[in-house]
Amino acid sequence: MFKNGKVRSPRPLLAVLELTSKCNLSCRHCSFFGLPRLQSRDMSFRQWKRIIDILVDNGCERVTLSGGEPTLYRRLPDIIAYCSRKGLYTAMTTNGIAMTRSLAAKLVEAGVDYVQVSLDGLMKQHETLRGSGTYEPALRALKFLSDAGARVCILCVISTLNDRSIPEFVAMLQSLNIRNIGFERLTPPVGSDRMMQIALRPARLKRALQTIYSLKKEYPEARISLNEPLKVHMDARIRQAIRGKRTPSGGCFAGGFACVISPNGDLRPCTRLPFNAGNLLKMNFNTIWNENDLLNALRNRRMWGPCGACRHRDICGGCRAEALSSYGDLFACDPGCWLQPKRRSNAKFKSAQIG
Ligand code: SF4
Ligand code: SF4
What we know:
Blueprint: E1 2-3, E2 6-7, E3 14-18, H1 45-57, E4 62-66, H2 76-85, E5 89-94, H3 101-110, E6 114-118, H4 123-130, H5 135-148, E7 152-158, H6 166-175, E8 180-185, H7 193-198, H8 202-218, E9 223-226, H9 236-244, E10 258-261, E11 266-268, E12 278-279, H10 285-291, H11 293-299, H12 305-309, H13 320-327
Parallel strand pairs: 3-4, 3-10, 4-5, 5-6, 6-7, 7-8, 8-9
Antiparallel strand pairs: 1-2, 10-11, 11-12
């Protein structure tokens, strides 16, 4: 990934398109509401086509349609069809609330490659974060989508609410014949003390990741994945594979091979980072992507403190969003890392004014 401390020719291989800021839930762990106020009107289908064209022209190969809640974007099937026509691998995320049999069929007909439904553990755990009455609709959405022929997966956010029942949760999904299961840790939105209290900290995060790795062995027919920079410490083969690659692939991808487009066309490094690098409807893509100081600092892993000095910096990098919410410093250490006993010394570092 790195050569002489510089990342080589990054391209936005993956783009998350936040089609709308509207949502039919107000989940307590949602990072979207920590962002600076976005325009309430969604971009038109024509404006999104323009942005998709720009991304494809600059090497994008996969998009994930997100929000807010993307099923509330009126022309969602048209966007999927357009992305498919452009040759993009097209995924979408949903909380499942607004899914119907008819919408599921339209999404499949439009060419969606897979649909990820959020399910944050067993019913009580899920509804603690997402509100009462949200669990059954998510399971129903999975059924509608599967019946329509969509490839589905679930994404589970892990926290102290659900980490100890991960095996029970995975067994329940197996009984429902849900084989594709993704996990990621809860990142507290900036300023949310309540969410900070349920975020997994080093010993518990390590245990949760070990549990997930052992479940991968227990259920070889399931596809259990982990969206987590620290997973490189779970398996030496992953570290080898990342080190051998010529393209950016390991650890935190903020500013590296992925970007996020906000509902108003702003380009951000990650869904959980509230930094706008420039607006794609107003500025040239290359100016934003290549010249923005924040993106360059992220992709070149210019951290300090324990992450900056760490030998795993290039293949891990820690979660920058976690560093930001815990220390108010984007380039401080990941507070979930169990490899750095002196991580608290981050407090003495001051955040640089970049971007
Ligand atoms: S110190 Fe930072 S880069 Fe090193 S292993 Fe921990 S999180 Fe990853
Ligand atoms: S900051 Fe990096 S590791 Fe954290 S959620 Fe964003 S891309 Fe993932």
